[in-house]
Design a protein that fits this description.
This protein folds into 2 domains: 148 residues, Alpha-Beta Complex (Aspartate Aminotransferase, domain 1), CATH 3.90.1150.10; 231 residues, Type I PLP-dependent aspartate aminotransferase-like (Major domain) (Aspartate Aminotransferase, domain 2, 3-Layer(aba) Sandwich). It is built from 15 helices and 17 strands. Helix 4 packs across helix 12. It is globular and about 60 Å long.
């Protein structure tokens, strides 16, 4: 049955992904099932999206109820879900103002526009951004412009001007790029696509101090590392370094296409005004009902506490694997965002893992990435280790 679906798909879809030859049909908990009924333990979660796994009853109930009420209306009006979701996300993020988008890429676009509008309103003449090497922020023209991986950018140049790149976790490198035209510094507290690199606390503290000294805005991209993945609601809260603007998406909707960028009141007062930025679908009632449901479930089911506990067990098991395996060099990561540095091609391991019913993905060339649903248990970790060990041996 897979072959029929795959052939039909390849005749119709634009070939912009190197897709696996699997057709998924349904999910339950931490598992996915293909059209032939094969079960896969999912340690990718739709690339860090499905924080609650698949088929959470309260989440499904909230979305089904919203379908009966209201799916979409213009942003010229408020809706009950957008009010509830904005208040809940404001509280969770500890920011002051929220703008809902359709994706993480759009959230980055809004954050960049907000930073430039802030500089314009203040009359500083600033317009330059400093981003990090090996970063990833999305594939639109603005997001690509601050993505610090050359092969993503090159085919689409010239991109937005006024972007410089510094070394992640190297404060002197950041200092060297600052000029009197620098309006914002943008970075991921934990780099995802670049290879699972957590920021050092001293680095984030140093960047925050530089921004404060020179009226430069600090933008955090928490699209992948945020929303509980690192053991706090957003990764910056674990470091104690608050940004001026933050982009988020993925897990805030648990599968609904939704993102957001949030900012402090200081930025909001001097940046985007009516007419500067907008969206047709961003913040529609259906998407916001999903966001509100996710945040309620996080609180009621103590998801953060669960992540803190199970991530310790995951790290212990991965560290043991590093010691016992000849092909795993190191582990790095934070919370339920983990990477294994491999001595053999990651793609081969990913394919072998699929054969054994395990979904994992790559990052940064030689890194095996694990970003499972936040509801996984120690039993799931044990199952993953068993399947992954076989894949490492056979790849």
């Amino acid at each position: 049955m897979n072959k029929n679906y795959i052939q039909t798909a390849e005749e119709a879809l634009l070939h912009t992904y190197n897709r696996f030859q699997i057709v998924l049909e349904k999910g339950a908990g931490a598992y996915l099932y293909d059209v032939n009924g094969k079960e896969y333990l999912d340690f990718a979660a739709g690339i860090a999206v499905c924080s609650l796994g698949y088929g959470h009853p309260k989440y499904k109930e909230a979305l089904k109820n919203q379908i009966d009420e209201l799916m979409h209306t213009s942003n010229l009006f408020y809706s009950v879900p957008v009010v509830n979701a904005a208040q809940a996300l404001k509280k969770a993020s500890q920011m002051d103002r929220v703008f809902f988008t359709n994706s993480g890429t759009e959230a980055i676009e809004g954050a960049l526009k907000a930073a430039r509008k802030y500089a314009y309103t203040k009359g500083t003449g600033k317009y330059e951004f400093i981003a990090m090497n090996h970063s990833f922020h999305g594939r639109s023209m603005g997001a690509l412009s601050v993505t610090g991986t050359e092969h993503y950018r090159t085919p689409f140049e010239p991109l937005i001007s006024g972007v410089k790149f510094a070394e992640f976790n190297n404060l002197e490198s950041v200092k060297a790029q600052i000029t009197d035209k620098t309006c914002a510094i943008v970075l991921e507290p934990v780099q995802g696509e670049g290879g699972i690199y957590p920021a050092e606390r001293a680095f984030l503290e140093g960047v925050r101090a530089l921004c404060d000294e020179q009226d430069i805005l600090l933008i955090f991209d928490e699209i992948q590392c945020g929303m509980g993945r690192c053991g706090t609601m957003f990764a910056w809260q674990g470091y104690g370094v608050k940004p001026d603007i933050m982009a988020m998406a993925k897990a805030i909707g648990n599968g609904i296409p939704v993102g957001a960028f949030a900012m402090t009141e200081k930025v909001a007062e001097h940046s985007l005004a009516p007419g500067d930025h907008g969206t047709t679908y961003g913040g529609n009632p259906f998407a916001c009902a999903g966001v509100d449901a996710v945040l309620k479930i996080f609180e009621k089911e103590h998801i953060l506490e669960h992540v803190q506990k199970v991530s310790v067990y995951l790290e212990e098991k991965l560290d043991a694997l590093v010691k016992s395996s000849d092909v795993v060099e190191a582990r790095r990561g934070k919370g339920l965002m983990q990477g294994l540095v491999l001595k053999k091609p990651v793609g081969d391991v990913v394919k072998k893992a699929l054969e054994h019913g395990l979904i994992v993905i790559s990052a940064g060339g030689n890194v095996l990435r694990m970003v499972p649903p936040l509801v996984i248990t120690e039993a799931h970790v044990n199952e993953m280790i068993g399947k992954l060990s076989k894949a490492l041996e056979e790849a």
